[in-house]
Design the sequence.
């Protein structure tokens, strides 16, 4: 038996457990996630797990297209998971709800008749609490808060959980599981050995993601500004056309008033100022040619 220490408990599991290989997800400790299982050996692993103590090992494949992965085709660090619920579907697939328990290293794989089993060892160690580690954790929490605000893909409520978690490894798992990054990057977070190393990895990932999100936000702002400018110019041009048509200036579109109107439409002046300028041009256009106010200098 091996012991897996969690924030508030220690769980003992056998050194060999059924294997559930995953194609498109990385399961972290404390993570509760539904999985759809269809491969015969995966179904066999689930059945064996439920018939026993409900524990198994979930490990991500290096290549999702591999149908029956061996040791070399699996990432060497996985997660012991506990089966919470299981539902057999009419098409012989199984929908299962699992909870990640703790990180383990896959030592060897043994293929049985209906499933594969892996021998495992406890993985990772807690780093000694130092001022440097405390500062690093605080920095990562701040980075993640900014990441959540910029990404728009993660509910703000997750920040409450982040601030309530006191165990640092639990915090690393929580943040890692909510990153919108590729599977290889998530696996990197899962496989980082010590607490300090895990937060250094998270800091590097978040730094790169924040830079990308800030660039996306800037580009989005520039596009929005250009669209608003184009809409303003279109509105002013249409307004000027209506004025000219109303005043019978359609055939006299080359005069000084038209030049002024075009200048207003092409300017970057605020919308309120532009509208006032249009009204002044309209006022000028209605004045008799000999009126002193109608002189354009």
Sequence:
């Amino acid at each position: 038996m091996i012991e897996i220490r969690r924030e508030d408990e220690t769980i003992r599991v056998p050194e060999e457990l059924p294997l559930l290989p995953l194609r498109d997800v990385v399961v972290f400790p404390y993570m509760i996630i539904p999985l759809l299982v269809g491969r015969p050996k995966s179904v066999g692993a689930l059945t064996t797990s439920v018939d026993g103590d409900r524990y198994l090992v979930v490990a991500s494949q290096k290549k999702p297209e591999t149908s029956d992965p061996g040791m070399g085709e699996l990432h060497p660090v996985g997660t012991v998971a506990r089966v919470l619920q299981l539902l057999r579907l009419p098409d012989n697939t199984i929908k299962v709800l699992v909870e990640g328990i703790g990180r383990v290293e896959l030592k060897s794989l043994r293929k049985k008749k209906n499933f594969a089993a892996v021998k495992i060892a406890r993985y990772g160690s807690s780093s000694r609490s130092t001022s440097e580690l405390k500062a690093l954790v605080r920095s990562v929490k701040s980075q993640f808060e900014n990441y959540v605000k910029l990404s728009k893909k993660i509910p703000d409520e997750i920040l409450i959980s982040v601030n309530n978690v006191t165990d640092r490894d639990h915090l690393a798992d929580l943040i890692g599981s909510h990153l919108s990054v590729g599977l290889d990057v998530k696996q990197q977070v899962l496989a980082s050995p010590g607490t300090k190393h895990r937060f250094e990895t998270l800091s590097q990932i978040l730094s790169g993601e924040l830079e990308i999100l800030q660039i996306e936000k800037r580009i989005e702002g520039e596009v929005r500004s250009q669209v608003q400018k184009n809409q303003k110019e279109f509105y002013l041009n249409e307004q000027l056309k209506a004025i000219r048509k109303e005043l019978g200036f359609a055939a006299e579109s080359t005069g000084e008033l038209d030049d002024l109107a075009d200048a207003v439409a092409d300017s970057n002046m605020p919308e309120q100022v532009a509208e006032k300028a249009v009204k002044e041009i309209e006022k000028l256009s209605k004045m008799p040619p000999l009126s002193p106010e109608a002189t354009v200098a």
Observations:
- Strands lie at 2-5, 10-13, 16-22, 32-37, 55-60, 77-88, 94-111, 116-122.
- The helical segments are 40-51, 131-151, 158-164, 168-177, 183-191, 195-247, 256-266, 271-286.
- Residues 3 and 153 are 36 Å apart (CA to CA).
- DSSP finds eight helices and eight strands in the chain.
